[in-house]
Design goal:
The complex is a heterodimer of chains A (292) and B (302). By secondary structure, chain A is mainly alpha-helical. In chain A, 72% of the residues lie in helices and 0% in strands. Chain A folds into 2 domains: 43 residues, no CATH class; 221 residues, MetI-like (MetI-like fold, Orthogonal Bundle), CATH 1.10.3720.10. In chain B, 41% of the residues are buried. The chains are: A mainly alpha (292), B mainly alpha (302).
Chain lengths: 292, 302
C-alpha cells in the first residue's frame, strides 16, 4: 500500500497490471454504458410529442404506471420470503459435514430448473387437476378448487422456487465466512444458540444480507417468463417487464420501450439505495474478525 | 466509557449470574422444536419441487394424461418428437456455441481485470468497481432493451456474435466479482518473489499465478456456464429464429402451447433440466458452494 501511494503518476502508466483491466473497461463502456446512454437519450425522443411525452404517457396510462406497483407487490414479498427462509436454513447448515454437502446440493438443484420449466411444472403440478390438488383431496385438507396458477399466487410461488437457491447460496457463504471462533467464544460465556445467532452472527451477516437482498430482488424484479406463462399477464401479474417488452417488440416503439426500461432501472436502483442505506445503519466491519 | 465495562453484554452477565451449564440445560426443547420447524419447512419445499419435476417427467412420458393419478400409457416417443419438432439438435448446438464463447471470453477479459482490482490502489477504483457491479444490480431488461435497440440498428441482433455479446454483459461482471476476492487472498509475496528472480509480468502470470488461480477460474467458469444456460431475458431480446438458445426455444414452445402437445414441451423441458443439472453437479464437485462470495475458514487456527 505504502509503496503504491508513493509511486508517481508516470510510472503508473507503465505498470502492466494497470492495463490488464483495459479490455474489461472497454467492453463495459461500449456494451453497457454507451447503449444505456443511447437508450436514455432515445427515451427523450418520442415518436410524437415533446421531450418528456413518453414519461408523461407512462404515468398517465393506467395499465402502464400500475405495473410498478404490481411488480413491487410481487418482488418484495418474494425476496423477503426467500431471505427469511434462507437465513435459518443456512445457519443450520453452517458446519462442514458430509450432510451439509448433500443438503446444499439438493437445495441448490432448483437453480437448474429455469423459470420456464418451473412455469410448465407448476401448470401441471399445481393445476386444478394436478397431483397437488389430488393429494390435498386425498388428505381431506382442502376440498375446494385449487387456484394456484394463472394468478398472483402462481407467480409468487415460482419466484420463491427459482429465487430461494440463489439467496440460500449467498447467505450460506456469508455465514460460513464468519470465524467460528466468535460464536464459540459467546458460547463459552454462556450464550444460548439463539443468543449466539442474535448477538454475534446476525450483526456480522447484516451487510451480507443487504447484498443478498439486492441481488435476489433484481432477479424477482425482472420477472418475465413466469409472469406471462403462470400469471395473468393482462391483470394481476402485468409486471413492468411485460410493459417494456410490449412497447419494444409488439409496438416497435423503441423510444417508449427505453423510457419504460429507464423507469424500471430507476425503481430498482431506488430499492437498492434504500436497502444499502439501511445497511449502513448497522455494524460494518471485518467478517472474519481480523486478519489471520 | 467507564461504564462500558460494568454494563456488559448480556452473554457475560448471564454467565456470571448463573452457573455455566444453565443455558445448556435450557436449550434442547426450544432449539429442537426450532430445528424441527426448519427441517420440516425445507422438506415440504423440496417434496413439492420434486413432485413438480416428477409431474413434468411423467407428462413427458405419457401417452395421455388428463386429471388422473397416473397417465393411461407410457411412451418415450415425445422425446423424438420434441427433437424433430423444435430442431433440438440445432438449438443445442447454438446453446453450446453461445455458452462456451461466453465462458471463455468472460474469463479471458474478466480475470485480468479482477487482478487489477485486487492488487492495485488507484484513484477512481471505487467508480470502476461500481461500473462492474452495476449490471448485476439492475434488471437485465433495463439494459437489455437499449442494447437490443442498438443491435437492431447495427444489424447485430439475431446473429450469433450479438447473442454472445449480450450474454457476456452480465457474465463478465460476475467473473470479476467472484475472482477479485479470490486473487486478494493469494499472498502477494509470491509475485514479488517471482519478480525478484527476474520473471517478467507474463512469465509470472503463466508460472506463478495461473496454477494458483486455476481452482477459482474453474469455479467461476462453471458458475458462468450455469448462469448463461439459464439467461433468458437477454437472449430472448437479441436472438433471431436460428440463434435461439435452449431456454428461449423452450419459452416459445410453451408460449405457443395451443399448437403443440404438452408432452413434447415437457420432454424438451426435461432435456433442458438434465443439461443444466449435469453442469451444476460437475460445478458442485469442484466448488464448495460456500466459496461463492468469501473464502471459507473451516477450521479455527488454534
Amino acid at each position: 500500500m505504502m509503496q503504491m501511494s508513493s509511486q508517481t503518476a508516470g510510472s503508473r502508466w507503465r505498470d502492466p497490471a494497470m492495463w490488464m483491466a483495459a479490455p474489461a473497461v472497454i467492453f463495459m463502456l461500449t456494451v453497457f454504458v454507451y447503449p444505456f446512454i443511447h437508450g436514455l437519450i432515445l427515451s427523450f425522443q418520442p415518436l410524437e410529442g415533446g421531450m418528456l411525452s413518453n414519461y408523461i404517457k407512462f404515468f398517465n396510462t393506467e395499465n402502464l404506471w400500475m405495473t410498478i406497483g404490481v411488480t413491487l407487490k410481487l418482488a418484495l414479498p418474494a425476496t423477503l420470503i426467500n431471505i427469511l427462509i434462507a437465513v435459518p436454513v443456512a445457519y443450520r447448515l453452517r458446519h462442514k459435514t458430509p450432510y451439509q454437502k448433500i443438503a446444499t446440493t439438493i437445495l441448490v438443484i432448483p437453480i437448474t430448473l429455469g423459470t420456464v420449466l418451473i412455469a410448465e411444472g407448476m401448470l401441471t403440478y399445481f393445476g386444478p387437476k394436478g397431483w397437488f390438488a389430488h393429494i390435498l383431496q386425498l388428505l381431506h385438507v382442502y376440498e375446494g378448487a385449487i387456484r394456484l396458477t394463472h394468478n398472483y399466487a402462481g407467480v409468487l410461488i415460482s419466484l420463491v422456487i427459482s429465487g430461494f437457491p440463489f439467496a440460500f447460496l449467498l447467505i450460506l457463504s456469508y455465514i460460513t465466512g464468519i470465524d467460528p471462533v466468535l460464536p464459540r467464544a459467546a458460547a463459552t460465556l454462556g450464550a444460548t444458540p439463539f443468543n449466539q445467532f442474535r448477538y454475534v452472527i446476525l450483526p456480522l451477516i447484516l451487510p451480507g444480507l443487504a447484498m443478498a437482498f439486492c441481488l435476489s430482488f433484481v432477479q424477482a424484479f425482472s420477472v418475465f417468463p413466469s409472469a406471462v406463462l403462470l400469471g395473468s399477464p393482462a391483470g394481476a401479474t402485468r409486471v413492468i417487464s411485460i410493459a417494456a417488452y410490449e412497447a419494444a417488440f409488439e409496438n416497435y416503439d423503441y423510444s417508449m420501450a427505453s423510457a419504460v426500461a429507464m423507469i424500471m432501472g430507476a425503481v430498482q436502483l431506488g430499492v437498492v439505495v434504500i436497502v444499502l442505506g439501511l445497511r449502513n445503519l448497522f455494524y460494518r466491519g471485518p467478517v472474519s474478525g481480523g486478519k489471520g | 466509557m467507564t461504564h462500558a465495562s460494568t454494563t456488559t453484554p448480556m452473554a457475560t452477565s448471564q454467565s456470571t449470574s448463573k452457573p455455566a451449564s444453565s443455558p445448556k440445560r435450557r436449550t434442547p426443547w426450544a432449539s429442537r422444536a426450532w430445528s424441527g420447524l426448519v427441517v420440516g419447512l425445507m422438506t415440504f419445499f423440496l417434496i413439492n419441487v420434486a413432485l413438480m419435476i416428477a409431474s413434468v417427467a411423467t407428462n413427458s412420458m405419457a401417452t395421455r394424461w388428463l386429471g388422473t393419478w397416473l397417465p393411461s400409457g407410457w411412451t418415450l416417443s415425445w422425446y423424438g418428437a420434441a427433437w424433430q419438432e423444435f430442431q433440438l439438435g440445432d438449438v443445442l448446438l447454438v446453446t453450446l456455441e453461445v455458452v462456451l464463447s461466453v465462458v471463455v471470453l468472460s474469463i479471458l477479459i474478466g480475470v485480468p481485470a479482477a487482478y487489477t482490482l485486487a492488487r492495485r490502489e488507484f484513484r477512481g477504483k471505487k467508480l470502476l468497481t461500481g461500473l462492474f457491479l452495476l449490471p448485476l444490480m439492475i434488471p437485465p431488461i433495463t439494459y437489455g432493451i437499449p442494447l437490443a435497440t442498438l443491435m437492431y440498428e447495427l444489424h447485430l441482433a439475431g446473429t450469433l456474435p450479438g447473442v454472445i455479446i449480450a450474454n457476456l454483459l452480465p457474465a463478465l461482471p460476475f467473473v470479476i466479482l467472484v475472482m477479485t476476492p479470490f486473487i486478494e487472498q493469494i499472498d502477494p509475496n509470491l509475485e514479488s518473489a517471482a519478480k525478484v528472480f527476474g520473471a517478467r509480468t507474463f512469465a509470472m502470470f503463466r508460472h506463478v499465478l495461473m496454477p494458483l488461480l486455476a481452482p477459482g477460474i474453474l469455479a467461476a467458469s462453471l458458475l458462468v456456464l450455469v448462469r448463461t444456460i439459464a439467461m433468458f431475458e437477454l437472449t430472448f431480446m437479441t436472438a433471431g429464429s436460428d440463434t435461439q438458445t435452449l431456454v428461449v426455444a423452450l419459452y416459445y414452445s410453451v408460449f405457443a402451447a395451443g399448437v403443440r402437445a404438452s408432452q413434447s414441451i415437457d420432454a424438451m423441458a426435461m432435456v433442458y433440466m438434465v443439461v443444466t443439472l449435469i453442469w451444476l453437479l460437475i460445478a458442485m464437485r469442484f466448488v464448495s458452494p460456500t466459496q461463492l462470495v468469501s473464502r471459507v475458514k473451516e477450521q479455527p487456527q488454534h
